[in-house]
Amino acid sequence: MKKYKRVVVINLLLLLICFLSLPRVLIFLGLPDNCQIFEGNKTPLKINLPFNVSIRSNQQGNLKINGQKLSQHELNINLSNPIALQASSVGEYNLDFKLFGLIPLRKMVVNVLPQVKVIPGGQAIGVILKSDGIMVVRNSYIIGENQQKYFPAKEADIEVGDSLLEVNHVEIKNKYHLARLINEYGKKGESLRFKIRKKSGEVQFKEITPIKSKDGFYMIGIYVDDGATGVGTMSFYEPKNGYYGALGHMITEANTQLKIDVGEGEIVRANISGINQSHDGLPGEKLGTFFNGQGMLGNITKNNSFGIYGRLSISPKHPYFKEAIPVASPLEIKEGPAKIYTVLHGGEIEEFNIEIEKVRRQYEPAEKGLIIRIVDSRLLSQTGGIVQGMSGSPIVQDDKLVGAITHVFVNDSTRGYGILAQWMIMQTDLLEKNVAKEFAS
């Protein structure tokens, strides 16, 4: 009897575990709790579960599943075949999936977004980003006139990743300005009252007495930086309003790898003068030249995990795209051939063949949604694969922008990651503007 009860308890526990883990299993198998599609596009949702379900919605609208308009009446489908989702208007639809028409299986929200069209990029750009505040990148010490070590910044609890905003109510313009202010106040025998922003975002004030070094300069014992510059690639731009996205990954401070908060920044035209080829274990790079303020293309207003964003002051020309093309939803992208656009010489955009090897199931914004491989012999002969500076190169498949290259595999320079274009588009105001336009009409 005891053995029988133990078996019953174990079975009940197993059923409970299965029930609690069911949502994650369903997402893994391809039945998410939410998904996003673009208005007008027929979008396949591949689930591959070997049973029939019924779907219904309490909302009236224009969402169709497998060509049939969804309503309060149950729609029976087999999940072993792809589901074709299509809607002719923007909106949000709540769906109820039931197994055998009785057992609740999943609630899913289908968010229909307005169709967005952009021109793929490929232009080589110089990125000039100034941080919002002066970043502390390393703690150090001062050897004073008496040859003793002093740690004034550390003792004031100023840490790596903090940003220095003001000293004695004077806004700090750059790292050289900071050094000058510290030395000047030190000569006057005045202490320093710093306004700082901690890594958490909290603003604090710290009092520090600068120390005169053995070399005769007043210091506080930190290394700082105030921005970054480099060469990258524009991913897309929208010709009417000038919104653009580039790089597909965050710009970080070189020493700490911490995000640089945008103070001000700009992108300018860059000229590619040469290529250091990639080799397995050693990524190559584009050698580019550009100058601050020369050939300015636009500003930088956002820097995050999905790239840099802003608005263009001029609309660049593109040799392959005279008109804007649609952005693909994650569900529309498939494994197979695609094209990328990037600059290898001077400022001329060229087209190259790649293979999309894997499309990761992402139903919410995330990085590394694609795994791609360079198959173009001409590109491989000149670069060895993906090189630094190629980040942001747009990926186009079936006349739609599907993503942008972001990272190279260190052990295989012919392969790398890409970010899905939809997640980049969501970092701009394009969707909001199109939604407002949709409802206004």
UniProtKB/TrEMBL annotation:
User: What SUPFAM superfamilies does the record tag this protein with?
Assistant: PDZ domain-like (SSF50156)
Q: Gene3D superfamilies from the entry?
A: 2.30.42.10
Mind telling me which InterPro entries this protein's record contains? PDZ_sf, Peptidase_S55, SpoIVB
Any idea where the Peptidase S55 domain is?
A: 202-440
Can you say what this protein is called? Stage IV sporulation protein B
